Amino acid sequence: MKTLIAAGQARRSAWNALTYFNFYRFLIAFLFVTLYWTGQLPTPLGVYDKALFFYCSHVYLVLAVLAQLVSRLQRPPYALQVCVQVFTDITIITLLMYASNGLSSGLGILLVVTVAFGGILIPGRIGILFASLATLAVLGEEIYTHLFRVMPEPNYTHAGMLGVSFFMTAGISYVLAGRVRESEARAEQSRIDLENLARLNEHIVQRLQSGIVVLDEDLRVRLVNESACNLLGLHGDMTGKDIKECSAEIHANALEWKSGQGKNAVVLRHGGVEIQASFVRLKLEDRVEILVFLDDVSLLLQRAQQMKLASLARLTASIAHEIRNPLGAISHAGQLLAESSNLTHDDQRLTAIIEDHSRRINRIIENIQSISRRDRAQPVVMELETWLEEFLNEFMSRHGLEGDSIQLCNTVAAGTKVRMDAAQFRQVLINLIENGLRYSQGNPALMITMAIDEASGRPHLDVRDYGPGIRDADVQHLFEPFFTTAADGTGLGLYIARELCEANQATLILHDNSAQGCCFRIKFAHPEKQHNLI
Fold first, then answer.
1. What pLDDT, in 10s, does the model give residues 305-359?
2. Do 17 and 121 meet the contact criterion of CB atoms below 8 Å apart?
3. Which of 96, 168, 210, 344 has the fewest Cβ atoms within 10 angstroms?
């Protein structure tokens, strides 16, 4: 692509150079014709043969005009046009020189200019050809004048020196043309690199998760990325508009910041969403712009919470490892004590409490270690309905549930597939169903619904219970480790379930919560788009 672009640019530059050459030829011819008709021809122009000077200058003007028109059409080919025009110039200037008393007229310098232009327009050995033709034309004119005209002794030395200047001009033109081509190539490459860099920067800015708005000194929008449009609810091209039309809150804070009274970072509310806006002054060569970074406060808090939970998980895993050994000793001692025949009823109750709580602590430790030692997800494509029917039959049989206690509702087409690790999917569903059965008060106790999101095409699974719902104060802590409302719970079930879903590029959310029950939704990854899973 870069090669094609560079070739196109070089072609346009060549035709433009030919246009300038034609314009120069037109000016020379027009000057000769004007001087002739105004009677101001300086000596020795046209002294020897005024009629020949008249015809040659007028033909030269007509040919220059035609050449200019033809070059704009770019037909015939470029090289042919250059050759014809150079040969025409050599012929007509030589005739004008002959009509103006030979080399003494000074018109030979025009041939130097012609050879120079020819060598630049068509770089290479053809410049030597132009110089050779011009030299032969000058020498031929001197020889012809000496043989057929009554003139003083011809100046062959002058002709020879002029011929040498032609060849020197051709050589210099060749070197200069090469340097011009190199400069044009470097300039074109720089232009392409700058354009690619600009497109890359624009792509990066548009894909940033943080919203970015660039304002000029008058607080008019110069650039806004997709994230900023989503945060501010903007539609269409906002370039050139006042930021006040986009967000009155940002406009007010930007004015305060410009005056030196505002803060560099403020939290504002726009459309019911808390947004952190940070202002930075961007100094360019010819202007000053204001760079505004926008971040969703809820996402920032969520990221901080995730980092805190990750650190907590590592800490608790290391603590659990240290606790397990003394816990094993306590449990073993309790079992040995329970086997003694001298224990009273109260002592037996105490040893039973020791064993129960030892098992509970051990279960917590196993859950924690299962998080830290979680195996890499190995997702497979499976038919959702078939897999769910087999899983529910096995689950209800093992737990002794009646056939109508869990209902399965299918709103997707037969054969709908999902991509997930079967063992991890089983663990997630067991956790959700056991939680639902614990709190559900209806019959059926649970409703499991399969559906597909029309917008994204991703299948999802809803697990709905008919219990009292979750308290609003508990919703924000629902997926935190060790948070539980049950007396015998560990608080790790939902946390592990969500981690397993994320390992399979799925998401687990609380989709609905009311006094009639709550609904957890598993959004599966797209079955036809597989990525690296961790």
1. 667 656 766 776 677 777 777 877 888 787 877 777 777 877 778 888 888 878 7
2. yes
3. 344
Residue 532 lies in a domain: no
How far is residue 87's CA from residue 136's CA, in Å, rounded to a whole number? 12
Cα atoms in the 13 Å half-sphere on the side-chain side of 27: 7
Tell me which residue range forms the domain holding 514: 380-523
Whether residue 476 has pLDDT greater than 90: no
Q: Judge contact between 291 and 280, C-beta under 8 A.
A: yes
491 Rama class: left (phi>0) / alpha (psi -120 to 50) / beta: left
Q: Which two tokens stand for residue 319?
A: 């603590």
Same domain, 123 and 7: yes
| Domain total in the chain | 4
Give the torsion sign (CA, 11, 14, 18, 23): positive
Is residue 439 packed enough to be buried (19+ CB in 10 Å), middle (13-18) or exposed (0-12)? Answer: middle
CATH of the domain at 399: 3.30.565.10
In a domain, 197, yes or no: no
Is there a single domain that holds both residue 92 and residue 232? no
- 0.90 exceeded by the pTM? no
Written as one string, the DSSP assignment of 296-322 is EHHHHHHHHHHHHHHHHHHHHHHHHHH
Give the 3-state secondary structure of residue 204: helix
| Maximal CA-CA distance, the chain | 155
- By DSSP bridging, strand 288-296 and strand 380-383 are unpaired
Cβ-contact 253, 266 below 8 angstroms = yes
Confidence at 488, pLDDT banded by 50, 70, 90: low
Q: Is 483 helix (H, G, I), strand (E, B) or coil?
A: coil
Rg of the chain over all Cα atoms, to the nearest angstrom: 45
Closest CA to 47 of 96, 93, 94: 96
Tens-place pLDDT, residues 372-407: 555 566 788 888 888 988 888 888 888 888 777 888
Q: Do 311 and 173 belong together in one domain? A: no
Burial of 137 by CB count in 10 Å (0-12 exposed, 13-18 middle, 19+ buried)? buried
